[in-house]
Design a protein that fits this description.
The chain is mainly α. The chain contains 11 helices and no strands. The protein has helices at residues 6-27, 34-40, 45-51, 55-74, 84-100, 102-113, 119-133, 135-149, 159-179, 186-201, 204-207. The radius of gyration is 20 Å and the shape is elongated.
């Protein structure tokens, strides 16, 4: 049998990841087997094991793949905001992406509600995705720190606390939006919350207040 080219190998890996997401979404993480993932795309279980040694490794790759899709969709020039306006635009673009993409909503629903996050699974996945887990907090605090240096927000503002509040607001609204508990615009609602937080820590002297 001829060796697969790198492109063929990557295509197979992508098919496995997509099949895994569909299976996890439909059956849940714990109830899905490698046989289920393989059968959906007419592969053998061994072919799936050739690419991934266990489901935790597969889940980590799914998270990394979605993070890369997010970066491409939002645009690389928006992923390192260095001002209040740039940070606001970053979240606007990400929220709008979630609103218009059924696939990304499927991914979020699966990771929030269909993975049994035991310590073992969390630790295995976190070892490969830790930077992604902390991405929004670091993005916010880096932008706010720069904004504080430039006088956009008060020198007395507690950047870490503001970052925690903003991340909590973002994650809480995504949870409610994905669950469809309430009917609301994710982008508009978060930006209203964002503006309220910024107004609270704003440089009142610069703003003339």
């Amino acid at each position: 049998m001829a060796r697969k080219t790198r492109e063929e190998t990557e295509n197979t890996r992508a098919q496995i990841l997509q099949s895994a997401l569909d299976c996890f979404y439909e059956k849940g993480f714990s109830r899905t087997t490698f046989e289920d993932i393989a059968a959906r795309i007419n592969l053998t279980k061994g072919a799936v094991y050739w690419h991934f040694k266990n489901k935790a490794e597969l889940l980590a790759d799914l998270i990394n793949r979605q993070a890369e899709k997010n970066r491409l969709e939002i645009g690389s020039r928006y992923t390192r905001p260095d001002s209040i306006a740039a940070l606001r635009d970053f979240f606007r673009r990400e929220a709008e992406y979630i609103e218009r993409s059924p696939e990304v909503r499927k991914f979020i629903f699966f990771t929030l509600f269909q993975v049994e996050w035991s310590d073992s699974i969390f630790n295995q996945v976190d070892a490969k995705t830790g930077e992604i887990r902390d991405f929004h907090f670091k993005t916010i605090t880096n932008a706010l720190t720069n904004a504080q240096k430039n006088g956009e927000i008060s020198p007395k503002a507690d950047i870490r606390t503001a970052g925690i509040v903003m991340v909590g607001t973002w994650r809480g609204l995504i949870n409610a939006y994905i669950c469809k508990d309430l009917k609301f615009s994710l982008s508009q609602t978060f930006l209203e919350g964002f503006d309220a937080i910024i107004d609270r820590i704003g440089n009142n002297e610069r703003l003339g207040k």
